[in-house]
Specification:
The structure is a single chain. With 226 residues, this protein is α/β, with parallel strands linked by helices. The chain contains eight helices and twelve strands. The chain is 44% helix and 23% strand. The longest helix has 21 residues. The chain is elongated. The two termini are 34 Å apart.
Length: 226
């Protein structure tokens, strides 16, 4: 696994950014096109995606949208397209931050450090995850709602954990299925639908009108704490 995938067609800029990030202790993979980035992510995983918008061929918006269908990896956009419309578009399709070019290297390094700490180091140190009325004990592998333990099987627990860890983010159905059952699983995608229903029956005030596990039609599911 690489720490950071840097997608930038300006070789001088990508080399400069990579040099500073490597000094901070991160491993960096550079791709000069959106197509190369998608191909790299087919076989490898990264902790953070650093993404330019104006790329040859597949642009950064398309890359961001495609990656977000498959992974919940933090995405930072860097672009000279700094008008409000483009920034809103970036956030709407799943970017976690949007930085103006020319990029301030020190600001970029601080933002990456904060994202890495929030998404990975804190998660490792904190053995309890709370989201609204749900609390998950990572060591005991059990979950509570309003301090009452939920009766969950292994897959229901793993599914709830994945959703809660990515609260507010829309997760693609295929991504969820692959994370819980694995790409080599003999189970069918309908299995996911069944487990979503079971989870809703256990945590929703009204399972027919879910407020926590929401369906995003044509894409997948999103967990909302309220």
């Amino acid at each position: 696994m690489k720490d950071i995938l840097l997608v930038e067609d300006n070789q001088e800029l990508s080399a400069l950014i990579a040099t500073f990030l490597k000094k901070d202790g991160y491993s960096v993979q550079i791709c000069e096109s959106g197509e190369a980035a998608i191909q790299f992510l087919e076989n490898e995983s990264v902790k953070l995606l650093l993404l330019d918008i104006m790329l040859p061929g597949m642009d950064g918006f398309a890359v961001c949208s495609e990656v977000r269908k498959r992974q919940a990896v933090p995405i930072v956009i860097m672009s000279a397209m700094t008008d409000k419309g483009n920034q809103l578009k970036g956030y709407e399709i799943g970017a976690d931050d949007y930085l103006e070019k020319p990029v301030d290297i020190d600001l970029l390094r601080m933002k990456i450090r904060a994202m890495m700490h929030r998404n990975y180091e804190n998660a490792e140190a904190n053995k309890m995850i709370s989201c609204g009325d749900i609390t998950i004990d990572l060591d005991a592998k059990c979950a509570y709602q309003n301090e009452k333990q939920l009766e969950l099987n292994v897959k229901e627990y793993e599914l709830l954990l994945l959703l809660v860890e990515n609260a507010g983010k829309t997760l693609n159905k295929d991504y969820i299925f692959n994370q819980i059952w694995g790409v080599d699983s003999f189970s069918e995608n309908q299995t996911l639908t069944v487990h979503i229903k079971r989870l809703r029956d256990k945590i929703e005030p009204d399972p027919k009108k879910p407020v926590h596990i929401q369906t995003v039609w044509g894409v997948g599911y999103k967990y909302e704490k309220d």
